[in-house]
Amino acid sequence: MMVPPAPPPMDPPALVAPAPEPPGPVVVTQTPTISAALTNSEIEVDSSYAGASLVLYGAVFNPGDDPVDVVLVVRGPERPVRLVRKVRVAGLWLNSRPVVFEGAPAFYVMASTRPLSEIAGFGVLRRMGVGLDHIQIDAPDEARTVNLYGVRDVVISRLGEDYLEWRRAVIRLKERDGLYRADPSGVRFVDPGLFRAEIVLPPEAPTGEYRTEVWLFQNGQAISVRRNTIQVRRVGVERWLHNFAFFQPWLYGLVSVLLAGFTGWAASRWFRRT
Predict the structure, then answer these.
(1) Do 126 and 205 fall within a single domain?
(2) Residues 144, 106 contacting (CB under 8 angstroms)
(3) From CA 269, how far away is CA 264, in angstroms rounded?
(4) Please, which of 39, 97, 118, 157 could form a disulfide with 55 given CB 3.0 to 4.6 Å?
(5) Are residues 103 and 226 in the same domain?
(6) Nearest to 70 by CA among 129, 121, 126, 116
(7) Structural domain harbouring 245
(8) CA atoms of 256 and 250, how far apart (whole Å)
(9) For residue range 33-69, what is the model confidence (pLDDT) as tens digits?
(10) pTM exceeds 0.85, yes or no
(11) Does residue 219 sit within a domain?
C-alpha cells in the first residue's frame, strides 16, 4: 500500500499592519509667555567706578488678543536701616530711641509699561512685593501679622500706628539717595512683542547679588516670570582694601594709625627744611 505524499507546506498568512489612526487635533496653548536677558550680568567695582548702566531686553509671545504688560523689578542685597527721630524734651531737641528695620533691600527699582494701578490690583501687588508701596520690609520687634483686605502681611509691631510713617521714612530716604526708584514707563515695546528697559546702578549701590524679576501681566494677574541675577563685586586694590579692613579690622586700624603718623612726621620734616 502506497502512502500518499505529504502536502507541501503552506506559507504563513501575510501580516497586514493596521492603518494608522488619523492625527488628533493640534492643541495650541493660549497662555502668553515671556523671555528676557541682560546685556551684562557682572559689574566690577574699582577705584574708577562711577556707577553702571545695564539694558534688559526680551520678547513676549502672546497668541491671544488680550493685551499684556511687562513689569521689571530689581532688588539689591538686604541691609538693615537705622532711623532716629528728633523729639522735644524739656525744651531740647534730642534723638529718640533708634528704630532698626531688618530685611530692607539696599536697592530697589521698578519699571513697567504703564502705572501699576492700571496693571493689577492692590492685593496682587502687595502679595508679590511689586512697587515702592509694597516693598517687603520687616518691622522692628514684629509681634505678628494679620489678615486684612485679603492680604496676609499687615504688621502689628511695637511702633503701633507710627509703623507706616517709619516705613515711609525708609522709602523716602532711599529715594533721596537714588537707591529706590519707580518708573511707570521704564519698559518700552520697541517692536511688536519686543521690549527693553534700562537699569541704572548709582555709585552708592552696594556690592553683592542683585535679583531681577520680569513679570508678565494679563487681565490683572501675573501669568509668567523670568528671573536673573546681577553680581556687583569689587576688584583690584578696592577688593584687597575692603577684605583687609573687614576681616582684619584691628590690624587695619593699627596700620592706618602708623601710616597717618608717619605721613605727619614726614610732612613736618619737609616743611622745616623748606
Answers:
(1) yes
(2) no
(3) 9
(4) 39
(5) yes
(6) 116
(7) 235-268
(8) 10
(9) 899 989 888 888 877 788 888 899 999 998 888 889 9
(10) no
(11) yes
